[in-house]
Structure formats: C-alpha cells, structure tokens
C-alpha cells in the first residue's frame, strides 16, 4: 500500500514538472532543453497517434500511408512544439476542443453518416426489391393462363374423342390434335424491359449517391473536422489574448485570483473572498464540478441539436423498420395464398360425366420480395456515438474550465489583467448592492417613523 501511494505521488510530481516545463519559455541549458524536447515529443506522439487512428479507420485497407504520414507529423510537430510556445498552447487546446462543440458536431455528422449508409440506403434497397418483384410477376404471369387454357382444351379433346371399340379391320381412324397459339406481345415486352431498365437506372443513381456520400463523409469529414477544430481553437486563443480578453469568459476564480485577493487583504485593501450566495451562482472557483448558471444553460443548449438529430435518426430507423415489416407481412401473405383450383367437367351424349382439376399458382415464389434489415450494427455504432455525445455534453462545462486554466498557464500576463478586471468588477457590483441595500433600509426606517407619528 505504501509503495502504491509513493508511486502515485511520484507520477503526480513528474506530471506537474513536465507540465511546468511545457508551458514555460525556452531557457538556456542543454538539460532543460532536452527535457522540453522530450515533453514536446510525447505530446507530438499523442497527436500523431490520434491522427493515425482517424486515418486508419478512414482508409481501412491502406495502413502504410497513414503510418508514414503520422511518423512525419510526429517529427515535425515535436520540433515545432519545441520552438514555439504558442503552438504548445494550441496543441493542448486543440485536444480539449475535440470534447466541446466541434467534437460534438463531428460526432453528430458521423451519426448522420451511419444513418445514411444503413437505414436510408436500406429503405431504397427494399423499394428496389419491391419494384423488381412487381416486374418479375408481370414477366412470368402476363400470359401464363393461356398455357392452362391449352391444357384444358387438350383434356377436353382426349375425353371427347370417338370411342376405341370399333373393329380395326373395318374402320381405321387417325386423329392428331396439336393446338397452338400466337400472341403479339412485343409492345408489352418492350414496355416491361423499358420499365425494368428505368428502375435499374434510378436504383443505380440512388445507390451511387448513398455510397458516395458516406465515402465522402468518411474521407473528407475528418479533414474538415480537423480544420474546424483548429479554427475554433485559434479563435479561442485570439479572444483570450485579444483587446477584449478581460471580458471573454471571465467568470472563473483561479488560484492566482485567490492569491491576489489574499495579497489585497494583507495590504488592507478591499478584498472579495469569500463570495456571497448570489455571487457564487455566477462565479465559481475552478476546477470544480459545480457550474455557473450560464454554463448550465449552455450545457442544456448543447443537448438540443443532439436531441433533434437523435429524433431524426429514430425517424429514419422507424421508417426502415416499418417498411421492412410491411414487405415481410406481404411476403408471408403471398406465400400462404393457396393455388387456384380449377375444376373441369365434360358431359357427353350418353349422360356420362368426366371431371378433372388442375391448380394454377397465383404468385411465383421466386418473385416474392425478400427485404433486408440491418439495425443491429447500425444501433451499435449509434449507441457508441450517443454515449460519447452525452458524456461530452455533461462535461462541457468542466472542459471549458480546463481550457481557461490552460490558457492562463501559457499567458500569465493576460491572466493578471483578467484578475484585476474581475476583481474591480466584483467590488463595484458589491458596492452598488450595498448602496442599494442601504437606501432601501433608510427608506424603510423613514416610512416606519412616519407611520409611528401618525
């Protein structure tokens, strides 16, 4: 137990030292620079490994290319992180940004791609199966009854022909009956062929679109998401260090703010801490699992597009399932439909009656539609996506706190400006509140005295 505690403490100390080296400016001395390069190499390796995973799943059968590119990115990123402090801040904020709005949007896009690649494509596939079934029935059954009519005529002839009791040496009868029929169905066949070709053409177009869209999403969206997250991270840094940095997300109390307030107290100047109940609703000490009212509202708003897209996914999945169940029900009904039983009766002059029967199938079994349904794999993928969307939504406030803490670590001068601004702002608010409270108490006292005189 003692060894495990010591080991954990050593890990924490090493991590803290590595973080302090990573956020600091480059200093002279080969030992310090070797430590800085080692930390930058570790961060570069993590970033290149994440890039390799995204490219590997996008190019599932080509792992050598992403591996070489990831190795090149690792080397290049390690050198650039070692040289530029701003890039170090960008890299950490980039990883954190993946869990905020940009990461949420990327997951929503991935979920939509899964629905397009499975449910919507399956709906059109089942529609094609249904159309193929209709054309198949038209091809096989267009003149099938004519064959049964010919068979009926042959049976009538065989039963009604002259009896064979006549002596062969007196009368020799030779009879031959070969019925034939001719149907001019060229126009109908051409119409059926044109219909089948048109159905196949439309199905190919839809299949191409539903194949190319997930392909584009799989190949292009990771790159687009990379640039989107990068743009959001650069915008965040610009707002944090820009001319209006003192007002940008300046609702968090850091350790440096607490130290500054303690210093003000020692100098016998106005201090703020501890915050009152109303102030704690809008300003919190970070890191903390308690969020401000604004953060809670943003958290609820972040779930709104998730809920909307999830309902759309459910709608397409329900349409796919209902259409599948409809075709399955029709399929089962067609298989249970009995054959049509035809009874033929022939009455002769002697009062004899000959009967026979034959059955006509109303539906060809090889033309009955067989739909497909692939909800299991779809909802496994969507379940994982929804799970991470919920996690990102719940911890979006905490991730924002981490981004602020990282930014203040890299830009301490900007943090001091923010601390002075927030400290003065809260003191001003508190003074106004005390002044307002004093006026109310004075008005209440005056009104009581007036009522007492009356």
UniProtKB/TrEMBL annotation:
Protein name stated in the entry: Dendrocyte expressed seven transmembrane protein
Domain Dendritic cell-specific transmembrane protein-like: 248-423
InterPro entries: CSR-E3_Ligase_Protein, DC_STAMP-like
UniProt keywords, alphabetically: Membrane, Transmembrane, Transmembrane helix
Provenance organism: Cyanoderma ruficeps (rufous-capped babbler)
Localization per Swiss-Prot or TrEMBL: Membrane
Chief location bin: membrane
Pfam families tied to this protein: DC_STAMP
PANTHER family: DENDRITIC CELL-SPECIFIC TRANSMEMBRANE PROTEIN (PTHR21041:SF2)
Membrane topology classification: Multi-pass membrane protein
Gene Ontology, cellular component aspect: cell surface; endoplasmic reticulum membrane
Membrane spanning residue stretches: 36-57, 63-84, 223-241, 303-327, 379-399
């Amino acid at each position: 137990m003692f060894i495990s505690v010591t080991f954990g403490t050593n890990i924490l100390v090493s991590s803290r030292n590595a973080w302090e080296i990573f956020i600091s400016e480059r200093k002279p001395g080969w030992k310090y620079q070797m430590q800085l390069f080692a930390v930058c190499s570790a961060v570069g390796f993590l970033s290149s490994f994440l890039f390799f995973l995204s490219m590997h799943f996008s190019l599932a059968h080509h792992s050598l290319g992403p591996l070489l590119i990831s190795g090149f990115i690792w080397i290049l990123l390690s050198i650039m992180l070692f040289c530029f402090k701003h890039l170090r801040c960008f890299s950490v904020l980039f990883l954190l940004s993946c869990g905020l709005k940009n990461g949420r949007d990327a997951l929503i896009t991935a979920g939509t791609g899964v629905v397009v690649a499975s449910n919507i494509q399956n709906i059109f596939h089942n529609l094609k199966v249904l159309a193929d079934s209709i054309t198949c029935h038209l091809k096989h059954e267009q003149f099938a009854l004519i064959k049964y009519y010919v068979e009926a005529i042959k049976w009538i002839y065989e039963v009604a022909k002259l009896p064979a009791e006549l002596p062969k040496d007196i009368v020799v009868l030779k009879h031959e009956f070969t019925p034939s029929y001719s149907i001019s169905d060229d126009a109908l066949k051409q119409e059926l062929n044109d219909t089948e070709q048109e159905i196949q053409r439309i199905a190919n177009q839809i299949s191409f679109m539903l194949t190319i869209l997930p392909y584009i999403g799989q190949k292009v969206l990771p790159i687009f998401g990379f640039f989107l997250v990068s743009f959001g991270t650069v915008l965040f840094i610009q707002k944090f260090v820009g001319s209006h940095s003192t007002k940008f997300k300046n609702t968090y109390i850091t350790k440096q703010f607490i130290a500054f307030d303690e210093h003000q107290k020692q100098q016998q100047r106005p201090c703020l801490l501890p915050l009152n109940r109303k102030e704690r609703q809008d300003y919190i000490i970070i890191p903390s699992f308690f969020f401000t009212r604004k953060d809670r509202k943003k958290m609820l708003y972040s779930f709104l597009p998730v809920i909307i897209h999830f309902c759309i996914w459910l709608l397409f999945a329900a349409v796919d399932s209902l259409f599948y169940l409809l075709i399955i029900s029709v399929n089962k009904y067609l298989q249970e439909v009995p054959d049509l039983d035809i009874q033929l009766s022939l009455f002769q002059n002697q009062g004899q009656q000959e009967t026979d029967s034959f059955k006509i199938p109303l539906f060809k079994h090889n033309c009955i539609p067989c739909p497909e349904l692939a909800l299991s794999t779809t909802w496994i993928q969507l379940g994982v996506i929804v799970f991470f969307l919920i996690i990102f939504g719940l911890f979006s406030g905490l991730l924002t706190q981490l981004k602020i803490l990282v930014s203040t670590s890299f830009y301490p001068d900007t943090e001091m400006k923010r601390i002075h601004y927030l400290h003065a702002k809260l003191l001003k608010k508190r003074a106004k509140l005390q002044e307002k409270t004093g006026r109310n108490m004075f008005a209440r006292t005056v009104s009581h005295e007036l009522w007492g005189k009356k």
